Amino acid sequence: MSDESALLREPWSDFGRQREAGKFGIWVFLSSETLFFGALMLTYTVCRIEHPQAFAAAGRETNIWYGTINTAVLLTSSLTMAIASQASEASAQLRRLVLACLMLTAMLGLAFIVIKGFEYKEDIDKQLVPGAGFALSQPGAQLFYGFYWLVTGVHAIHLSIGIALVSRLLWVLLRRQLPAKDNPEIEVTALYWHLVDIVWIFLYPLIYLPGRAS
Predict the structure, then answer these.
(1) Is 112 within 8 Å of 159 (Cβ atoms)?
(2) Where would one find coiled-coil regions in this protein (predicted)?
């Protein structure tokens, strides 16, 4: 059985069409996710214009070290995912590189979640959860942390889905249920992973940099 035959799925009779349909589908999905996160960021912008001092004060309370470390972790995971995708397209001889990079990508994703968990614990200890007993008195500060908890939580869910997709892909490749060479599932998974990374690149300055410019 050829690699293309192993990768072909119903209802497709042609591997090329299946691949193009998969790419089209993931781009439609990514577009919808871009609209979703774009709406959240627009809401943040409006609230920040209305409460600039409160947002600056709230931004100074975020832990920039956790945020910066996690940014480096995600950017590195994006690199390993890109290498896995390119190696899959290049040669069947690079199977081990594909597997190694997928494993590193999943591990870096898990590292991000763990680091974010420590940051969340610190935020809770500092009473930076909107509601009764919130630590900051400036009007509008709770809006900042409402945005913070919402977008970082949604991002963490998306990242967890990405980790599951990469882990599942790694599992089937290790069991040789699918070939690593020219596998469209790797390409589609890579596109999803890069979306998660790009969203974080936009979230980092919105969350961690307000109030720190001066």
Answers:
(1) yes
(2) none
* pTM for the whole structure: 0.86
Measured CA to CA, the distance from residue 163 to residue 77 in angstroms comes to 11
d(CA 128, CA 130): 6
Q: Residue 55: name the closest of 113, 142, 129 by CA.
A: 142
Cα atoms found within 13 Å of the Cα of residue 45, Cβ hemisphere only = 7
CATH for 13-208, options being 2.60.120.590, 1.20.1600.10, 1.20.120.80, 2.60.120.10: 1.20.120.80
Which tens digit of pLDDT belongs to each residue from 169-202?
A: 888 888 765 555 657 788 889 999 999 999 999 9
Domain boundaries of the chain, sorted by first residue: 13-208
Nearest by Cα to 162 from 18, 30, 21: 30
